[in-house]
Structures are given as structure tokens and as C-alpha cells.
Design brief:
The chain is mostly helical. The chain folds into 3 domains: about 110 residues, no CATH class; about 240 residues, no CATH class; about 100 residues, Receptor-associated Protein, CATH 1.20.81. It has 20 helices and no strands. About 35% of the residues are buried.
Length: about 500
């Protein structure tokens, strides 16, 4: 595996300096879409900037709009001059080209709507290519993480050999530092988790989630975490529970504790994810139905009501039924959108709904404007589907490395134990109890590492650490089953009572 220096450098630069640029590039397609739709409805781009000041779903462009409007209203600058100045200051090349292109088209007398449509097409093509590059970087990151786990496995094997044989006894006699249990514990419970956390931080800069304000899974983890913390304290302070820390019981106890922490928030997250993923998949079809109904002459409101009656939207149908009932009762579109924000937490769907509402309220919801919105909503869905399909294999890789680490570590520990029972020069028979303690220690470390790996995989695959609860539970269970099966099989093979 080869790791290119520019990618690693890019991660570091993005971590410290590129957050604003990445955010403005992420929001640019939706801002450009809003500008295009409003321009097609006869709204000037300066009025569009003023409209952006109230859109909190695009926080970077909201801040940019406030600055542009401030310079025009307070300092008296011409809007085109302000946009040209902002283009010179921004670090985003895509945003700079968008501003300069618009200023140039207005000054040269080119049709602004045609320019915005052309630029919007270019922006989405760039976004699609950027998504592919992002997946390549994430693939490199996952490969690097896999290499880290391989190095960790080699370290485990090395420490097993050091701790369970007397081959290196002459080194200790000569004054060479040996491997103490404290060093092993630091490696397993501090160094390896710290490296995993570093990889999570890098993944956080590379992968953004479409879900916003997802806090429910973390709240659901508070009570189980409190219970597990109490049990851990009881194991430490109560002698009556010391038997639970025996080599035969402790990995099981750790597994149960981690599953207790992970499963409740995982269930909460999967319910949220199912609703929002259904909304993402159904939104383009919903907008297409609205557009086609508008083309045959229905009003924007009746077009929306007509589109909500279609079946096959999954859990998104509940939200659409709410929209239809509120519209039939005469509730305003903006108030309906506020109610949608309480049901849906996926960012692209909310932005598309917002643009739909603004297009109808300001420009009358012309069929041409809605057609533009629908076309690019479908393109955005294609990009997301492609991204998810390319990232899916990395989930399988996580389960493979969990099984391999568990099997290999157990195999080496028991093989070394079996070899020490043979009368060989320089080898002293290792007591069964020591071997069980070693396997207990490394099994605990493996289970904990797989639990942390679940959050890394969740961030890479779905863009949010909340998804990590689901993957952590599955990886912990996979690791524990692999450890039990390998220990029972090899124990029977070597005649060792597990």
C-alpha cells in the first residue's frame, strides 16, 4: 500500500485551515440553485442575497450574505463591486469563479439566468468529482487504519512471546529493559485507542454527514453509560464481585458492558436514519410529481397536495401526509416548513424544501423554475447513491480485520503456550494460569479496539459518529464470538482447558 504525501498533508491543512473552504464548497450548489431559481422568477441577485440572510440551513452563505448586504446598505457600495471584492478574499476557487462569472455576465449584458443555469451545471459536476475524490481519500485513510491495526497485531504477538517465554532472559541479565505488564497495558489501553481517536478526527474533516442536530442517540447512551460506570466501580471496590474479573469471565463482562452502552443509542439512531434516508431517496420523486402537476396547470399548492398522495415513499409518507393535511387546512408554506424541520433532519431534503417554498412564495413557482430544482435534486441523489455504494466495502473490511485480530492473537498465545510445554533449550514451561491471564488481557484490548473501530467505520460510511454505535455493537459481538470459538477450538486441539 502506498500513501501519497500530498493526501496526508491535505488532511493536516484541511484540519487547521480548510474548514471554512470545505463548508462554503458544500453549500455552494444549493446557494447557486437558489440564485438560479429566484433569477428565473425575476428576482435580482441582490434581493437573493438579502433572502439568504434568513436561511440558517446555509450558515456559511448566511454569514456571507450579511456581509455583502452590510457593505451595500451601510457603506453604499455597488452590489457588483462588493461581490468582486468578496471573490478576491475568498479561499474557495469554486465560489470565486461563481462570483466573478456573475459579475462579468451582468457587466457584459449576458442573460443572467442562462449563465446561472450553466454555472449550476458546472457546480454540480465539480461537486460530483469532489465526492469521488473524497471517497478516494477516505479509502486511503481506511487502508492506513488497517495498517495501524496490523502493526498493533504484530505488537500483540511480540509482547505475547516476550511475556510467555524465557528466550529473552539473557537480554534481561545483560541489563536490556524487559517488557513489563505495565508497558503492555499502556499499549493496549492508551496508545492504540489514542491512535484510533486521531484517525477519527481525520475522518471527521473528510466526511460530513447529511444529518443535522442528531443528538438523540447520544442522550440515549447516557443512562447505559452510567450503569456500566457503576458496575465498573463495583468490580473494583467490592470483593464479592472479584470473580467477574477472572480470565474466563472478564472478556464476557466487557462485551456485555460495551453492548449495553451501544445497543440503545444504535436503535434510536437506526430509527432516525431510516426516516431520513427514505426522505433523501423520495425527495427527487416528490419534486418531480410537483413539477409535472405544475406543468399541466395546477397551482403550486394543489401540485404539492397532488404529489403527497403518491404511495411508496416509505416512512417519508408520514411527513407528506402531515404536509397535505396542513395545506388543506390553509396553513402557510413557511409554517409547514417549520413543522417539517421537527420531523426531518437530513440537510439536503430540508434545503430542497426551503428552496421549493421560497420559489413558490417569491416567484410563483413557475414550471421552469421547479423543473430546474427537480433536475438538480435528482443529480444530487445520484451523487449520494454513488458515494454510499463506493463506501460500503469498507464496512466489510472492518469485520474482516476484527475476526483476523481475534483469531491470530489467540492462535499465537496458545501456540506459544503449547511450545513451552515441550522440553526445548532455553524454554521454561509456562503455567496455564499465566497463559489465561495473557489471553484475558489481550482479549479485552481486542474487544475495546473493535468497539472504537465501530465509530471510525460509522463516520467513514455514514458521516456521523452516531452511526458508530450500530457498527460498534456488531464489531464487538463479532470479536467476542471469534475469540470464544478460536479459544475453544485451539484449547481442544492443544488439550488446554479454557
Amino acid at each position: 500500500m502506498q500513501f501519497k504525501r500530498p493526501r496526508i498533508l491535505g488532511w493536516i491543512l484541511n484540519l487547521y485551515f480548510g474548514e471554512g473552504t470545505s463548508e462554503i464548497n458544500r453549500e455552494l450548489p444549493f446557494a447557486a440553485l437558489l440564485f438560479t431559481l429566484l433569477a428565473a422568477s425575476g428576482v435580482t441577485i441582490y434581493e437573493s442575497w438579502k433572502k439568504l440572510r434568513d436561511i440558517d440551513l446555509l450558515p456559511t452563505f448566511q454569514k456571507e450574505a450579511r456581509e455583502i448586504v452590510r457593505q451595500v446598505d451601510v457603506l453604499g457600495y455597488d452590489p457588483l463591486t462588493v461581490m468582486h471584492k468578496r471573490a478576491e478574499k475568498t479561499k474557495s476557487r469554486n465560489y470565486r469563479e461563481f462570483l466573478l462569472g456573475y459579475v462579468s455576465s451582468v457587466r457584459s449584458g449576458i442573460n443572467v439566468v442562462n449563465f446561472l443555469k450553466s454555472k449550476l451545471r458546472s457546480v454540480f459536476e465539480v461537486e460530483s468529482a469532489s465526492a469521488i475524490r473524497s471517497i478516494e481519500r477516505l479509502g486511503t485513510l481506511v487502508e492506513a487504519y488497517a495498517v495501524m491495526l496490523i502493526v498493533t497485531l504484530c505488537s500483540y504477538i511480540l509482547f505475547i512471546v516476550f511475556a510467555t517465554t524465557s528466550v529473552f532472559e539473557p537480554m534481561k541479565i545483560s541489563g536490556t529493559p524487559g517488557v513489563s505488564p505495565a508497558v503492555v497495558c499502556i499499549l493496549i489501553f492508551f496508545v492504540t485507542p489514542l491512535i484510533s481517536i486521531i484517525f477519527m478526527v481525520i475522518a471527521h474533516t473528510e466526511r460530513k454527514s447529511n444529518l443535522i442536530a442528531v443528538k438523540q442517540p447520544y442522550y440515549a447512551a447516557i443512562l447505559p453509560l452510567t450503569v456500566v460506570s457503576g458496575l465498573t466501580a463495583a468490580l473494583y471496590f467490592l470483593p464479592q464481585l472479584q470473580y467477574l474479573t477472572s480470565p474466563q469471565m472478564f472478556p464476557l463482562i466487557i462485551t456485555v458492558c460495551l453492548l449495553t452502552v451501544s445497543i440503545p443509542p444504535a436503535v434510536v439512531y437506526m430509527k432516525i436514519a431510516k426516516t431520513n434516508y427514505d426522505a433523501e431517496n423520495s425527495m427527487p420523486s416528490f419534486l418531480r410529481d410537483v413539477t409535472e402537476a405544475r406543468k399541466v396547470g395546477l397551482s403550486p399548492e394543489k401540485s404539492i397536495v397532488h404529489a403527497t398522495k403518491r404511495m411508496g415513499y416509505g416512512r417519508f409518507s408520514a411527513t407528506l401526509n402531515l404536509i397535505r393535511s396542513q395545506m388543506e387546512w390553509g396553513v402557510s408554506l413557511r409554517k409547514i416548513f417549520g413543522n417539517i424541520k421537527q420531523k426531518i433532519q437530513t440537510w439536503p431534503v430540508l434545503v430542497n424544501f426551503l428552496i421549493l417554498v421560497e420559489t413558490i412564495k417569491i416567484g410563483g413557482g413557475s414550471a421552469a423554475a421547479l423543473d430546474i430544482l427537480t433536475d438538480y435534486s435528482e443529480k444530487q441523489k445520484d451523487v449520494e447513491v454513488n458515494k454510499k455504494s463506493l463506501l460500503r466495502p469498507y464496512v466489510i473490511l472492518a469485520f474482516i480485520w476484527s475476526v483476523l485480530i481475534a483469531l491470530t492473537t489467540t492462535m499465537v498465545a496458545m501456540t506459544v503456550y503449547a511450545l513451552t510445554q515441550i522440553s526445548l533449550p532455553g524454554a521454561v514451561a509456562m503455567p496455564l494460569g499465566i497463559m489465561q491471564v495473557q489471553i484475558n488481557l489481550f482479549s479485552t484490548g481486542i474487544i475495546l479496539q473493535c468497539w472504537l473501530s465501530g465509530f471510525f467505520v460509522g463516520k467513514v460510511n455514514e458521516g456521523t459518529f452516531a452511526a458508530g454505535f450500530k457498527y460498534s455493537a456488531m464489531l464487538v459481538l463479532t470479536a467476542y464470538v471469534s475469540l470464544v470459538l478460536s479459544q475453544n477450538f485451539l484449547g481442544g486441539l492443544y488439550g488446554v482447558v479454557s
